[in-house]
Amino acid sequence: MSRGMDDNSTDHNNNSMQANQKDSEENMNQSKTGTPGVARERTQVSQHSLSDVARSRSISKGVTNNLGSGLEAKSVHAWFGSKHVLEDISMTFDTGTVTALIGPSGCGKSTFIRTLNRMHEFIPTAALAGEVLLDNSDIYAPGVDVTKIRLKIGMVFQKPNPFPSMTIKENVLSGIKLAQLKVDNQSELLESCLRRSGLWDEVKDRLDEYGGALSGGQQQRLCIARSLAVNPQVLLMDEPCSALDPGSTLRIEETIRELSESISIVIVTHNMQQAARVSDYTGFFLSDGGPGILVELGTTSDIFSNPKDKRTEDYVTGRFG
Question: β-strand 137-138 against 153-156: which pairing, if any?
Answer without folding.
Answer: unpaired
